[in-house]
Known about the structure:
There is one protein chain. The protein is globular. The chain has 10 helices and 11 strands. It is α/β, with parallel strands linked by helices. The strands form 3 sheets. Strands 3-4-5-8-9-10-11 form a 7-stranded parallel beta sheet, covered by helices on one side. The protein has a two-stranded antiparallel sheet with strand order 1-2. Helix 5 links the parallel strand 9 and strand 10 (about 175-180). The chain starts with a strand and ends in a 19-residue tail after the last helix. The longest helix is centred in the C-terminal third of the chain and has 21 residues, at about 240-260. It has helices spanning about 35-45, 65-75, 105-120, 140-150, 165-175, 195-200, 240-260, 265-275, 290-295, 305-315; strands at about 5-10, 15, 20, 50-55, 85-90, 90, 100, 125-130, 155-160, 175-180, 205-210.
Amino acid sequence: MTLQQRTLGTTSSLTVSALGLGCMGMSEFYGTPDEQGGLDTIHRALDLGVTFLDTADMYGPFTNERLVGKAIASSAQGRDGVVLATKFGNVRGEDGGFLGISGSPDYVRSACDASLQRLGVDHIDLYYQHRVDPTVPIEETVGAMKELVEAGKVTHLGLSEAGADTIRRAHAVHPITALQSEYSLFTRDLEAQVLPVLRELGIGLVPYSPLGRGLLTGAISAGSLEASDSRNSRFPRLHGEALEANLRLVEQVKQIAAEKGCTPGQLALAWVLAQGDDVAPIPGTKRVRYLEENVGAADVVLTGEELDRIAEAVPAHAVVGDRYGDMSSIEE
């Protein structure tokens, strides 16, 4: 099976499957890690044409890159059948502790070498700075990333959760192919300033959490998550009165999805896909059945009238709560 392909970036273009796969939850944050479930999900994704895989050194920490590398090596498609993206910048210790954000050139180089080793590959297709380091000029960080391209270790460069000014400055040093930031019916912050800059510069958008951390699937309710799931503590939108208010919005999504003959999650993903041919969301899952449901979103075609109705049903200003408990590392 082959999914529709989309192009990220115009100066330094990269072709990816219209839907990617976020692999983070296979190793950490969203309940109990499940390596075998992750391997099965990645293999099924590749068979379905989802060839754009997303990981990061910090996930696990360090174990998710190994899992993704193992899955690629044991897949029928092999390395050449995958567009592989990973990230650096959120520094963690072996014990899992968070040690801060680093964009120093020396760290960029060492982080890349470590990721290549864990992934078991000789190059990374899309290498992101996971969060912008406010203590290091972006020109220095991207300058070091550019050296990785020149050395053949990286093919395309990306940023994550960077603001409009940072994106412009970075792009002036080396073409930025993609910005990865949270974007969904529930998170539309970047539409005002960031998205116009991306379109002006010809940079693609890779939305993470396009299902609102699962809220937009309709499967989450008060007390429904595993005790070990970080969504119980890190995300204000999923707690208390905020959750109650946001679930009322989800009911609107459910209603429209039922009329459309798809699931709420498929409707939400179809909305993201409809935002432009330069947009390639990476819904994450560690379960084959959820992956297959997500892939079905590629067949949901929304008319202009339906897009307007969805926007009216879930206005951006109606979503309650910050998307992170600590927003200090998110640029606007």
